[in-house]
Amino acid sequence: MGLLRFFRVKRKSKVADKKTILDAQIQHSFFATRFRWTDIETFTKNFSTLVGSGGFSTVYLARTAPGMAAAVKILGASERLNRMFRQELDILLQLRHRNIVNFVGYCDERDEGALVFEYVPNGNLQEKLHRRPASTVLPWKIRLVIAFQLAQAIEYLHEKCSLQIVHGDIKSSNILLDEQFNCKLCDFGSAKMGFSSAVGNPSSSSSSPSSPFRAKQLMMGSPGYTDPQYLRTGIASKKNDVYSFGVVLLELVTGKEAFCSEKGQILTSILPPTVRDGGGIKPSEVAELVDPKLRGDFNGDEAGALITIAAACVRQPPAPRPTIGGVVEMIREKMGNVGEVKRGSKLLDVGRW
C-alpha cells in the first residue's frame, strides 16, 4: 500500500513539474489564455459542431465571445497523446506570424488537451484545388500569393524563430484560407523544435527539447508530400519541409493532387527529366503542366518559374535543395513582392466562359 502511494505521489509530482515548466515557458512567449474545461464546454456548446477530425484529434466550432468564432482542437486521453499535446503547445507558444493560424489559448486541466485557435472561415487549399464545385476555379494570381505567403510562413519557422522549427506535415489540407484567400499554415502536431538543419543521433546528454540535435524523430508524413529521404532515414530535417513545399507548388500550378491513388503516382513524377535535373523548362512543357481548368488565364513566365523552383525543392538527394529563405528570394526575384490577396478576390466562375 505504501509503495502504491509512493508511485501515485511521484506521478503527480511529475505532472506538477511539467505544469511548472509550462508556466515558465508562457512567461517568455506570446500571450495565450489558459482556459478552464468549463470554458471549453461553453465555447463549443458542449462540442455540438464538429468541423474536422484526424487520427489523434477532433476539431469543434466555438465562440469565445459574441461574434468571435474559434476552432477548438481536442486531443484524446492517453499518455502518448498528452505528450503530443504538450509538444504542440510548447511550439504554438513560440509562434506569431500573419500566415500562421493564430493561437488563442489552451486547457490542460484534464487528460484530454484542448487547443483554441482563430477560426479561418474559407476552408483549406486542398478543398479549393480538388474538392471545390466544378464551376469554380482558384485564379492564378491567388495561387501565386498563396505560394509566396506559405514560403514566408515556413521561412519564419526555419530561420526567424528563436528555436528553429520543422513543421513536418506541410500539405494543402494544412493551409487554411481566410475570406481574402490569404494563407494560414496550421497543424503543428508533427512539428519539432530546436533544429539547426537536421536531427541526428546524438549522445543522451544532448536530448533535451531545446537541443539542436536530438535522437531520431519520427514525424508523421502524408502520401505524396513526405520527403523520400526522410522515409529512408527517419531523420527529420528542414529539407523535408522544403520538399513538401515543392509538392504544394506543383499542386498550385497543375491542379493535380500530391498522390493519385488510382495510378499509384506521386505528383513529382510528372516533372520533365531535364527540369528534375536542374535544367530549364520549355514554354510547351509549361503549357502542358499548368492546370487546364485555368483555361489559359495564367502568366507563362510565372508558371515556368514556379515549376523550376518546385523542381529545385524536391531534388534528390536533398543536399542541393535551396533553403526556404532562398526560395522566398527566388520568388521575389522572379515575380516581385507578391504580397497579399486584394480585398474582394473570389474564385473564377468557369460557367461564364
Automatic annotation (TrEMBL):
Residues where ATP binds: K73
Molecular-function GO terms, alphabetical: ATP binding; protein serine/threonine kinase activity
Residue span, Protein kinase domain: 45-335
Domain of life: Eukaryota
Single GO cellular component term: plasma membrane
Keyword check for ATP-binding: yes
Family matches, as Gene3D superfamilies: Phosphorylase Kinase, domain 1 (3.30.200.20), Transferase(Phosphotransferase) domain 1 (1.10.510.10)
SUPFAM superfamilies: Protein kinase-like (PK-like)
PROSITE patterns found in the cross-reference section: PROTEIN_KINASE_ATP, PROTEIN_KINASE_DOM, PROTEIN_KINASE_ST
Stretch forming the signal peptide: none
Keywords: ATP-binding, Kinase, Nucleotide-binding, Receptor, Serine/threonine-protein kinase, Transferase
SMART domains: S_TKc (SM00220)
Family: Belongs to the protein kinase superfamily.
Protein's UniProt name: Receptor-like protein kinase
Organism: Cucumis melo var. makuwa
Phylogenetic lineage: Eukaryota, Viridiplantae, Streptophyta, Embryophyta, Tracheophyta
